[in-house]
Amino acid sequence: MCGIFGIINDKNNQAAATVLEGLKKLEYRGYDSWGVAIIPNNKKEIQVDKHIGKIGEAKTILPAGKIALGHTRWATHGGVTDNNAHPHLDCNKKIAVIHNGIVENYQEIKVDLLKKGHHFVSETDTEVIAHLIEEKSKTKKINFAIFETFKLLRGSNAIAVLDFDSQSIIACRNGSPLVVGLGTDQYFLASDVPAFLKETNKVYFLNDGEAVILNNNGVKLFDIETEKERSLVSQTLDWKLEDAEKGGYPHFLLKEIYEQLKTIPKTTSINEKEIRELADKINSGYKIVLTGCGTASYCALASKYFFAQQGIDSSAIPSYEFMPFSKFIDKKTLVFAISQSGETADTLIAVKEAKKRGAEIVAVINARGSTLERLANTVLSVGAGPEIAVVSTKAFTSQLSTLYLLTTAVKNKYEIGKEKIINLSQVITKFLNTQLINQLISLAKQLMNEEHMYLIGKHLNYPATLEFALKIKETSYVHAEPFAAGELKHGVITLIQKGTPCFVLASNDEVKDEVLSSAAEIKARGGLMIGVFPFESNEFDVLIKTPDLEDLTIFGNIIVGQLLGYYLGVGRGADPDKPRNLAKSVTVK
Ligand code: AGP
Which terminal Cβ of the chain has fewer Cβ within 10 Å, N or C? Predict the structure, then answer.
């Protein structure tokens, strides 16, 4: 996954600087290297400025101009080097290409181009595209040369081409996301809306197999296969600039954790029609399969427990392990595909397989205009707004509360479910007070130099433990290993030594005592006991007392994990918004 941003008709005649500012808003999509290409005023060729590492406070040395295209990279093919950074040029510096995805057949294309005398400077699959366009534009008009080139590329890709001669940006999509922003006499191309939200919220999300040409006259939409023009119908998003800004918080992660106080209750006022229709389908005997990756897969697992609580059977399968179980999918199956971005490759592959087997797809998504949204029969858009931090928080809790509401609707307890979610947000608002923050900051200080920590939870608190641990790992790079409490005696208790930090997540439920006895066994081996639950217990060295919200207690327990991860990460010098080696959504298998 990479960040793409381009502009036509930059009103400040500083298109390279404008593109760099836009790329900064997309860095959550990849931050191994960045680069900008510009068509400078009164110059004969494209100029490029590219570097490895995060953009940070970097300034570009590129000259003035009105048309530029930029990229922030998450390396897949070719190491993290200046040469491998995008954009990539053709031999005559008239064509610059940036790319999101993987060209599976680039080696064979490259061999042919080398024979034709093309000279390559990088190891990337992307550079091949620039030279292939150059080759084809010897006999065709540029946009047809690009369409033909794109049709030859195997794999899920999005490309954007800056063409000097036609003073335009031409982009094609097949898999990876692309969106056009329609400003006043300014036109934008990006892989995500936050890049140009400051200028416009009038957008067009490209579909697979579509291309756009942006130039001084505006934006034209084409079907790549037929190379025929199509009418472009834009939509206006209800997103505001501040949604994509830090709003006075030091990091997007902390802002988005606090935004949950609004985003969680918002789920009670959206998707009502869809939730009632889905409840009817479930009551008419549809099977339920929940799937997603990473944090989204933990949302799937927690939802399985919520369904079971209502006496409803369902299965939760991480998307990267979906295929062996796809044979059990049929026409009377609802597949809930959970994804913040709606672009995660493994989740899309699982959905396409389920669709092939006749299943009805329910997309439980946050980002709008995504591939998953287009593949779905029903869309539950959880409305958490742009989630910029790579570490998912508000999207997760909004997806979980939306699915919780569905489980209550199936049993005609939808209104009760809504009241409980509203009450949850009011209680959590009081819970997120200075006393809690001070306690978490001092705990983070206490654990700052720990390299290993373990977590246990039972029943609903088991998926909560998985998500809590993932937040610690993603933000602080500490090895945080979650277990089902019952697993302890079957081997993993060997890992406990004197002072080993052990978190115990629990609720005031029927297994509270069992979990406490597991905790006692860990304490007996010298573990440093950290309790995260809504009751007193003097078995623990540290107790984070969370609100007692019955079956919704896990929301408070998980938010403690989000905050502790944040303070541990900041304390250990990690970048809470852009953890190493990660990207906001993984668009490659
Ligand atoms: C969560 O903090 C991570 N960024 C990651 O596990 C993420 O949940 C996973 O990659 C799925 O992304 P999606 O929700 O956009 O599909």
Answer: C
From ligand 1's centre to the CA of 391, what distance in Å? 7
Cβ proximity of 209 and 157 under 8 Å: no
Burial 380-419 (b: 16+ CB within 10 A, else e): bbbbbbbbbbbbbbbbbbbbbbbbbbbbbbbbeebeebbe
At residue 243, the pLDDT reads 66
Of 275, 488, 256, whose CA–CA distance to 389 is shortest? 256
Euclidean distance between CA atoms 568 and 565, whole angstroms = 5
User: Would you say residue 248 has pLDDT above 90?
Assistant: no
Determine the Cα–Cα distance for residues 306 and 153; give it in Å rounded to an integer.
Answer: 44
Q: Quote the pLDDT of residue 238.
A: 74
Q: Report whether residue 586 contacts ligand 1, using a CB cutoff of 6 Å.
A: yes
Ligand 1 pocket check for 344: Cβ under 6 Å: yes
Instruction: Output the pLDDT for position 241.
Output: 63
Both structure tokens of 580:
């190493």
Model pLDDT for residues 373-415, shown as the tens digit of each residue:
989 999 999 999 889 899 999 999 999 999 999 999 999 999 9
Cα 396 to averaged position of ligand 1 atoms, centre (Å): 9
Pocket of ligand 1 contains residue 347 by CB under 6 Å: yes
Which of 359-373 are b and which e, b meaning 16 or more Cβ less than 10 Å from the residue's Cβ? bbbbbbbbbbbbbbb
* Helix, strand, coil percent values for the chain (each to nearest 5): 40, 25, 40
Secondary structure of residue 158 in the 3-state scheme: strand
Confidence of residue 585 (pLDDT cuts 50, 70, 90): confident
Positions marked active-site: 2, 584
Q: What angle do CA 309, 337, 255 make, to 5 degrees?
A: 85
Which atom of ligand 1 is closest in space to residue 584's alpha carbon? 4
Check pocket membership of 466 for ligand 1, CB cut-off 6 A: no
Q: Rounded to the nearest whole angstrom, what is the distance from the C-alpha of residue 351 to the centroid of ligand 1?
A: 16
Strands 187-190 and 95-101: unpaired
Task: Output the CA 469–ligand 1 centroid distance in Å.
Answer: 14
The model's pTM is: 0.83
